[in-house]
Amino acid sequence: MSSHTAPSDHGNARHNVKRFGYLLVVSVPMLPWLGVMAWQQWGHADAWAWFSFIGMFIIVPILDFFLGKDPNNPDEAHIKTLADDRFYRRLTYFAVPVLALSIVGGAWGFVFFTELGLFGKIGWVMSHGLVGGTLGINVAHELIHKNTRLEKRLGDALLAMVCYPGFRIEHIYGHHRHVSTPEDRSSARFGQSLFHFLPRAIAGNVAAAFRLEALRLTRQQVRVLSFRNEVILGYLAVAAIALA
Fold it and tell me: Phi, psi (5° rounding) for residue 117?
């Protein structure tokens, strides 16, 4: 059967089973803890503290290569059905408590895993940063594009947990307007290296978020330095998470 024809009952059944495979997305925070299990079994705690990078950049690409392309993925005709499926919508919601638990668990391990030296502690922090980048920013990007207030706020919560709260404002009102132009810090310039692009993008996007929010509040005749400023509220949430 062509992937562009209506799915058969067998195809629907297969999809109903396969859909639960997306739960693997919210299992990403388990990667650092698999490293913990490994070092408890074989030692070398400092090396295994970096296991998230091994899993994400070595194991997953190898599995992707051997599993190949799935010819039974739904085509564009089924996008509306999938978008209205509450299972997928709730899966994005579920990322919020999962990431919060990952941060709490990571902080606990940083304090109490006495096996870790300096190299291991750096790896432990970086591994949880990778979890935040994978589960936090990616899911937040989907949520901030949704139409409901709940989903936007859940996206804000994820962004606060990865210390990037201005992303929603800059991305929607800055990046989408200026994409691939000199005004867009999220678009790399031709031939620009990652190490030059990344700090420029982060610093530029944070500044742009403040400018955009200041412009919005000025138009509403509201003080920029106030609790109506969503960028300020976002960074207060970051501070609250850090203190907690």
Answer: -90, -165
